[in-house]
Amino acid sequence: MLYSKLFLAAAPFVSVAHGWTLSKSYSGSDFFSDWTFITGADTGTAGSVQYVSESTAASDGLAYVNSGGQAIIAIDDTTATSNGGLRNSVRIESTASYSVGTLVIADFAHGPNWPYGGEIDIFETVNNPTNNQMTLHTSGSCSHDPSASETGTSLETSCDSTGSNNDGCGVTDPSSSSAGFASAGGGVFAMAVTTEGVSVWRWDRSSIPTDIKNGGSDTSKFGTPVATWPAASCSSDHFSDLKLVFDITACGDWAGSSAVWAQSSCASSYATCADAAMVASNFEQAYFEVNYVKVYAA
Fold first, then answer.
1. In 3-state terms, what secondary structure has residue 284?
2. Has 150 been annotated as catalytic?
3. Which of 93, 119, 156, 284 is catalytic?
4. Which residues, at least 6 apart from 74, have a Cβ–Cβ distance to it below 8 Å?
5. pLDDT digits (tens, 9 = 90+) for 23-48
6. Is 93 a known active-site residue?
7. Which of 63, 70, 194, 281 is 20 to 30 Å from the Cα of 164, by its Cα?
8. Ramachandran assignment for 69, one of left (phi > 0), alpha (psi -120 to 50 degrees), beta (any other)
9. d(CA 260, CA 126)
10. CA-to-CA separations, 52 to 20, 25, 57, 247, in angstroms, rounded
11. pTM of the predicted model as reported, rounded to 2 decimal places
């Protein structure tokens, strides 16, 4: 029933190892100061949510910084809704835009103009998945090379989302699920988009590289990425004016489709996604708990 993601929207291993400079850090009490709260219906995936303003999100406990300095981004988990009713949720977009030559490192304690300009999904999951998915959505002439050096498993090769098929070219993380990731204390994601390509890494709390723990950004010490799209098959001109986005929605085109729902363990308890979405307690673990998001420029 749940569709949540963190994405950047609008070679082998990417190794621009040195020269990254911290340009922005979203963390602590000022976390929400440089984000725009998108309001209204979910027009992107037709989810059963109503995105609310910053003031409403704050008063309803859907967007705030907790006593530990962690940013909470959540969907309402207290209100019973009617079948097909809309549940309050949050979608935020960074006020700053980023382009090629960007490294993003995000530490989660808990997690759940398109396509021109590109969309890079770093954390993308629906219902009760076994694995997280990392995906590119672009205009034409961009593809994923399954032979690239990565630890994940290729799902689709065409990233072109300009037509009726907007699945994009996804890669599944072999050792990550949203539930398992949260119960293990979360971890860190990193994404680099350069002229050499796009790469995404993910580490559990116990395996975060020492370089990152010490505030570093040396991608040569990150190891093999979970997912990578070399420039040879997806050139950097597919990506420009990208914004960071946190989004939690319910049901909709993907999570709510009958075929996807039938494959979920949720289907054993509820006939449809809409039935499950009426029950507030199903969303108790549907939130991001963010220690920081750091953006570096080459």
1. coil
2. no
3. 119
4. 61, 62, 63, 89, 90, 248, 283, 286, 287, 288
5. 999 999 999 999 999 999 998 888 99
6. no
7. 194
8. left
9. 9
10. 35, 24, 6, 12
11. 0.87
